[in-house]
Amino acid sequence: MVNRLLLPIFIFVFCVVVQVFVFNQLYVLRIVTPFFYLYFLLKLPFGLAHNYMLFFAFFLGLVIDAFGNTQGMHAAACTVAGFVRPYIISGLHERSLPDESIPSYRNLGHAGFIKYVLIFVSVHHVTLAIVESFTFPDLVFFCLRIFINTVVTVFLLCIVELFGFGKDTDLS
Amino acid sequence: MRKFLDFLIERRHWTLLLLLLSFSGVLMFYNTPYRRAVFVGSANTVVGRISSAVGSISSHMNLKETNQVLAVRNGILEKQVIDLQSQLNRQQVPHHVDSMEISPYRFVMAKVVRNSVSQANNYITIDKGTRDGITAGMGVISPEGVVGIVSNVSARFAVVLPILNPRHRLSCRLAGTSFFGSLVWDGRSIRHARLEELPRHMQVRKGDTVITSGFSAIFPSGIIVGTINDHHPHYDNNFYAAEVALSVNFSGLSDVHVIINSLNIEQSDIEQEAQLW
After folding, report:
1. Chain A residues within 8 A of B117 when measuring between CB atoms
2. Are the Cβ atoms of A79 and B114 closer than 8 angstroms?
3. Which of B35, B58, B157, B269 is surrounded by the fewest CB atoms within 10 Å?
4. Distance, in angstroms, between B23 CA and closest chain A CA?
5. What average pLDDT score do residues B223-251 get?
6. How far apart are CA A36 and CA A23, in angstroms?
7. Per-domain residue ranges for chain A?
């Protein structure tokens, strides 16, 4: 029980700290800034009500915005990604998954989990790019940026998941 | 009506989505200084405290480079002092001092506590605010050249809109000429920006120095911005644009000066008054 409450809070703080102080400082080739903080949204339980999902996503985006001085951009992107997450899961997985458990390689399968991460991250990045491009119209550069950033972020999240909190899923 | 309500309740996550998206839209697009101050300002007292702890570590790591830059700068200034002193000695004629010749500019030293260079819209947070006499619209420079303009201020912190932000436009001039253009960032490289609206008939060579024009009262005239990097300029109609290699290394920025111009308000007031007519 304690784990069910504490684990998400721990992941939230961990994701924000790592994003703000490690990945936001990266500017490899001025293109790649992996958005590691999406890990928190990926690892919320399957059965989480849609409304809560939206609120968590929005709040996480807002916190990242506050640290990055990006005026609501991440909040918007996260909200959209959080909104489509239940549809991604139901689209990828026909049979119903236990509400309590958290997405991982074990219950989605390796290919399933990677697909889930890929779609989720793509939705987030495309939304973010659209939102950013309102202030910044440079189409080719942005397509390149979305593509590379998505690949790097998905790669990073899938690697982290290999070592990460996945093992705790059955504790609840 | 009842059906409509049922529909809304059944699809309430859609409503919530629209609500949250419009809220973030408001944050993004109603960027008046006041609204920004509410969000960024309140966040910055919290965020700024955390960041200054991290900033102090990273400023230690940059000390060696900073030291080198300061040493070079020191050398240049010392040389200037010697030159000026020798000039002064030659002209020992006491001349009439006009009160307007007193420089209106003062500097406030500030440390960078947060600095982004990887985003499409970059910002820098510094550790001086209204308590140190800083207001929005003041110019910020580093020993290497122009950094940006203060956009939001709280009591202890200020957010600077650097050259590396597409909303930033800076009026610049080529050293040794009276031709001026405006400097904008195209988002591709943190070491380069574009100087646009240059008159077509002027000659630009690689290595020419770009300095501030001094028109806006934000920056004094003649502060270095960068050097012309691309000698094959891009034409459009009557103007052309050239690529400028910025003199400031934004990724290693740690100490900046904020320029306080005591005549700034007076100048902008009278300019606004003139526009009313």
Report:
1. 27, 30
2. no
3. B269
4. 8
5. 79
6. 7
7. 2-171
